[in-house]
Amino acid sequence: MLTCAAVGTIGKRFDKINLKNEEENRRAYRQLLFKAGTEMAKHISGVIMFHETFFHKADDGTPLPKVLESLGVIPGIKVDKGTVNLAGTSDEFTTQGLLTVILYRVLSHNYLNLLIVPLSAVQRDLSS
């Protein structure tokens, strides 16, 4: 389930219902989706979230990723930041984003315990 579209995309949804595209409204919308209850978790095993959502909290102070985890739903993060030309080629592309998440995790620990792939596994793969 991809719930947390980028600010511009979610703004288009909000425009249709005359809701202002501001952070608190986005947080409340995502909380509504995530706190739909255990019925949601019977049909959805994971949620890919927009970066902003990792820092949002439910009204009771629980981080939204923890709300998902409490339901048995795996929280993930959208790391795709678009494509760029693959070095040394003129017609091949690569997706950017994962390295940013890894570096962010190392530097700030904000994604600690939230990434599905532990950093140690990535480090082992890079050193092989």
Q: What percentage of amino acids are in beta strands? A: 5-15%
Order of helices and strands: HHHEHEEEHH
Global geometry? globular
The figure for the number of domains is: 2
- Structural category is alpha+beta
Distance between the termini: 33 Å
Say how many strands there are: 4
Number of helical regions: 6
Average pLDDT number: 77
Helix content: 40-55%
Strand order of the largest sheet: 1-2
Which ranges are low-confidence, i.e. pLDDT below 50, for 5 or more consecutive residues?
114-128
Rg, alpha carbons: 17 Å
Q: How does the major sheet shape up?
A: 2 strands, parallel
Key attributes of the depicted protein:
single chain, alpha+beta, 2 domains, 128 residues
Summarize this, please?
The protein is α+β, with helices and mostly antiparallel strands and 128 residues long. It has helices spanning 7-16, 23-34, 38-41, 64-70, 98-108, 119-127, and strands spanning 46-49, 74-77, 83-85, 93-95. Helices cover 41% and strands 11% of the residues.
Task: Annotate the secondary structure layout.
Layout (H helix, E strand, L loop, with lengths): L6 H10 L6 H12 L3 H4 L4 E4 L14 H7 L3 E4 L5 E3 L7 E3 L2 H11 L10 H9 L1
Structural account:
With 128 residues, the chain is an alpha+beta fold. The chain folds into 2 domains: 1-78, no CATH class; 80-128, no CATH class. The protein has 6 helices and 4 strands, in the order αααβαβββαα. The protein has helices at 7-16, 23-34, 38-41, 64-70, 98-108, 119-127; strands spanning 46-49, 74-77, 83-85, 93-95. The longest helix is centred in the N-terminal third of the chain and has 12 residues, at 23-34.
